[in-house]
Amino acid sequence: MELLARPLPPEVVDERLDALVRRHARAGNAGIQVLNLIGGQAENLLDRLPPELRARLGDGTEQALRLAMHAANNSRDLVNGQPAWLSRAVTTAMGAAGGFGGLPTAMAELPVTTTILLRAIQDVSVEHGFDPAERGVQFDCIQVFGAAGPLDHDDGSDIAFLGTRMTVTGVALNRLILRVAPRLGTVLGQKLAAQTVPILGAAAGAATNYAYTSYYQQMAHVHFGLRRLAIDAGMDHAALLTDFRRRAATPLSRA
Description:
Low-confidence stretches: none
Number of strands: 0
Mean pLDDT: 83
């Protein structure tokens, strides 16, 4: 007779929840450093982009997300999971190259960076025991992009992406992409604007890409860490998520 695994004791659940809250609190630190570097504020960055480009961000991001999902999934056949630091190193180098030539090179670099970011999120899902080939996990990976972004970390919307999983179908995945694309378009627009800061160029590009990769890796750990904890503890994911949000909202969680 096979023995059923015992659920985790409450104190272990508390420890793991607190660790995820601390990880969430650290997620935006690199973004703050970027804003200090470029001497700006996140809400003003988009004003630096040409109006016609701002108008195309949503549609362009939707297409980039669809291409990135296919490219990231196919890359797993060639290269298995890679260390988190390697993803950060690659995107940092790409950001420097993209920022060196201003807006044209930053635009050319953007879809490639989006693919690497998605691949980094997939790698985090594997760390927590999930299979990125499963449609439900692909749904979750795209959902991580629904977080606010590293340059907008103080309004609480960076955990609004966390939610209970619905029945995942191809239609649901397409709807999620349509829902996430406008927010991600704004986030990536901030990245583009930061990369085009006069004089700083390559340095700003490297810093923003490092911040974005670190941020989405951390948020992926929060997302999949909560899913794994719900499984290991035999708890309802929605109840666990409510507890996480409560803890994340307390001042002590940001220490």
